Amino acid sequence: xxxxxxxxxxxxxxxxxxxxxxxxxxxxxxxxxxxxxxxxxxxxxxxxxxxxxxxxxxxxxxxxxxxxxxxxxxxxxxxxxxxxxxxxxxxxxxxxxxxxxxxxxxxxxxxxxxxxxxxxxxxxxxxxxxxxxxxxxxxxxxxxxxxxxxxxxxxxxxxxxxxxxxxxxxxxxxxxxxxxxxxxxxxxxxxxxxxxxxxxxxxxxxxxxxxxxxxxxxxxxxxxxxxxxxxxxxxxxxxxxxxxxxxxxxxxxxxxxxxxxxxxxxxxxxxxxxxxxxxxxxxxxxxxxxxxxxxxxxxxxxxxxxxxxxxxxxxxxxxxxxxxxxxxxxxxxxxxxxxxxxxxxxxxxxxxxxxxxxxxxxxxxxxxxxxxxxxxxxxxxxxxxxxxxxxxxxxxxxxxxxxxxxxxxxxxxxxxxxxxxxxxxxxxxxxxxxxxxxxxxxxxxxxxxxxxxxxxxxxxxxxxxxxxxxxxxxxxxxxxxxxxxxxxxxxxxxxxxxxxxxxxxxx
Length: 507
Fold this sequence. Notes:
By secondary structure, this protein is mainly beta. The protein has 2 helices and 27 strands. 9% of the residues lie in helices and 47% in strands.
């Protein structure tokens, strides 16, 4: 038995060493293969654009040529070239259609939570069961996944001419195909036949330095995400250091210039949606749960955040200044909200966050975000943990579902270097971590830390087509307890490597 275990450990170690050796070789091979492909397809001259334009949320977006600089523009995953937009003037509006047709091939050397969009590896103590009754350690499971359901389709409406009033209306709607799967046992392709999902849908009114935005958009306090084509349905780093969310909101932006320095002030109220799976199942008209009922479009009961009778409040201030031929931006933001745990008892949610983009030199750009706060599950904080609970014993007489609540404090962040070697060849290196406060955890919330590093290479094959290769290494830790007291890090932790190949056609 001992020899067998040693053999398994040796095989496991060799497997991981092979992955770590093969990844750099793999990236180099992709580079030369794509180089040959591009040459055979015919070289084109592309502008050197290392500083994409910004949309209202601060996301990277391509320049649409002769269009006004202050018009509403879509954001794209990755960093595509500044291609001419697909648009036409129809009556009083300029209609633009945009999208990303995305194919992903993902290969992992362990079982991952999230699969197509890995969030963390399963602990080494976990086992995977098979139909024949056998099991295998999660760290010895190797998954291969192909998917196209992270593809995106959107439309943008801008006025064909500036209205006489000076108020410029614009609107944007964007969907992907990462929605729920249809329930049909007769369709064997049910894993790839997915329903559309609303990502963002908002309109804005802009006049001079003021802008009013209403609809569903990104949260205010976290305007940046790591650049990735492997994670488009959710950002790379979600539940691992990158706060993220699309929420209905009303927001006011005010931009003011002081010589060459630009200051942006943002304030908004957002839907107070927590959706914490630990706090009861779906509710009814007389019971409050924090998750919507499965398979329904009408809610029988709002969530615990909605029952608190006030929205989320978020604000952000950002300062931008020209630097080394590009722009440096530094922003700070804050968040506050509440959820109702009882007729009287409430739990608040708060965060302080910062974001920055610094062009260190022409061929090296640094971007980062960081945060600290409490009860941040609405945005993937705390490794998707907001409130730690102690459930009532199953054999107890009629009693409340939980005997103890504890808000989980959290801190985390990510940093990424962009290395545009040429306009066609761009490398990315980064790291991210999400580190909940140990003393706030309870036996029902054991995720102690989730960290990963990544390296990726993007090759622009044409103006429209990008080849991406990404490697990420994940480290996931849990915690043990004596009763309800944290007793230290569990020796069973998750560690895994994921390689993702992406091909994207963007218009």
